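SEVERITY: medium
COMPONENT: batch folding queue
REPORTER: lab tech (J.R.)

DESCRIPTION
The queue accepted two submissions in a row. Attaching both inputs and their returned structure tokens so the on-call engineer can compare them side by side.

ATTACHMENT 1
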Amino acid sequence: MIDKREKRYQAFGDFLGRFVTDLNHLSEDGWSLLVEGPRDSRAIRKLGFVGDLVTVSSVGRTGTSVFRGREKVVILTDLDREGAVLAAKFVKRLSHEGFKTSLRERNRLKVASHGVFLHVENLSRFAPSEA
């Protein structure tokens, strides 16, 4: 018998599969994905994201040239308070520099996680296991 917690965990894993597919479609449509750091980047890749991925630290080192001519950015920072502050900072900065930004995917993830998974790096536990 599957308990309520396990059912929610399973539903979230199913959501993540669709979520990453949606992120890949956005990337095909010219969107870059901005995450906080290398562990977040590895987790998203492990989940199956194959599109243009940029970390906050790489923007700090090289500026917006790291987006390689793309002008649309999905911001996917952690779902905690610090992540919200960072997301707001990058919406302001990138918008000021002429980028179109989106927090829609971050908000979708926040709702789906029910406050259980606050850090993008922890999502890798839902990655399909390798045979």
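ATTACHMENT 2
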Amino acid sequence: MTLDQWLLFVGVWFAAGLPLGPNALNCIAISAQQGLGRALWAVAGILMAAALYIILVTAGLGALLLANAALFTALKLAGAAYLIWMGVKLLRSPGPDLEQQGAVADSPIATCRQSMLISLSNPKAIIAYGAVFSQFISPAQPLLTQLAALAPTALAIVAIIYIGYSALGLGVRRLLSNASRRRWFNHGVGGFYIFAGAALASSEISSMRTAR
């Protein structure tokens, strides 16, 4: 994996984690209600869920790569299309209601467990993980070497994003409590999704033409 490819992965993965979904709202609410220390336990639960998603997705991608290279290429194009679709969806979305409550629990371990379950309760997450990871895995390079770069990077970005949401706490709630601000926030992230998906699809199509 080249430095340019890694930097593009970093940008796409940051964009994947920034929208105000259940994980972000959970961290914000717990931080506001119970403090940053408790919210960090929620981040730990989210990281556990992310690690599980990465294991499942990369195992599936590896098996598919070994079975059929052409089908793997088709999956990469489908993943790029999915990124574009997510971008369009974000452009049309006003954003969630920030008054949702976090996973209030009696103990830090319970907060961690509940936050992990909240993260795992989204069945579309594994599709998103597969869509992004498939774009940056090359059949011409050893799979484990590529995963050694992608997986830690992805987990580090997940940690940075949700620690950031936790640290900002009430500040994020106030900043994005206005529907117009949430809409523009989604527009910015959605626009990046569309750009990244189109660029990745174009790159894959160019590679296919060159191979011929």
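NOTES FROM REPORTER
Residues 24-211 form one domain.
No errors were logged for either attachment.
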